[in-house]
Amino acid sequence: MNGDMQQIIAVVRLASGLILANGGETYRAEETAVRIGNAFGYHMDIIALPTGLTMTLSDGESNASSIVRVSERTTDLLKLEQVNDISRRLAAHDMTLEEAGRRLREISERPRPSLVRSVAAAGGTAAGFAVMFGGGLIEFIVAGIIGALVQLTISRLPDQEGLPLSCLVGGFMAAALTILAVSLVGRGNISLIVWSIMMPLLPGLAFTNGIRDSMHGDMVSGGARISDAVMRAVVLAAGAGVAMWAYIQLGGSVTWSL
Length: 258
Known about the structure:
Layout: H1 3-21, H2 26-39, E1 43-49, E2 52-58, E3 63-69, H3 77-91, H4 97-109, H5 115-132, H6 137-154, H7 165-185, H8 190-198, H9 204-215, H10 219-249, H11 254-257
Antiparallel strand pairs: 1-2, 2-3
Helix pairs in contact: 1-2, 1-4, 2-3, 3-4, 5-6, 5-8, 6-7, 6-8, 7-8, 7-10, 9-10
């Protein structure tokens, strides 16, 4: 395996892996790998799944294979844009492989937003949804505070690759704390506040990417993404449902809480 092939497959591993790890579609990860390989005169065969990818780079005489496992997945559109920019510059030969590898490693090692920023963003988003849904000052304040508390709590939970515990806890807290806050204040639309808090927790991007993958013929990846998104939405709703059921069992009004 020559040096160029080693460098190319290392860059492709980083680029395609970052796309999968930060909310990108599987077909985009494959296209990026193929584009980079073709730009340097190599043929790239790649199969991408939401949890990893397998690739083989060849020039007709020799080949190199690699497997990448993507165990942690999040959504970071800035990283996706930066990786896309690097792949485009590589395809146009405006960037060397060494520089691309260095830039991709910097992107990969960049820490996530601080806890304070993520909590503030979650609270502001929930408050914004409350206004968009037609809520007043009470709904705006309650949704913002509880949305921030929910984000603070789920950020402390361990990462899960199976059952989305954060969805279950988030849904339960959204409903339980809303019922408690509105009961204490004596004012507020419980349904509107719960909707506002849960909106940022819904896996809308994952569901959209699943549809896009399916439309590109990647039925396995598309089906897996859609199933994961639906499961998380169901668990989120189940968490809220448990809190409302407990409230009703304690004597709360059904028409008021739903």
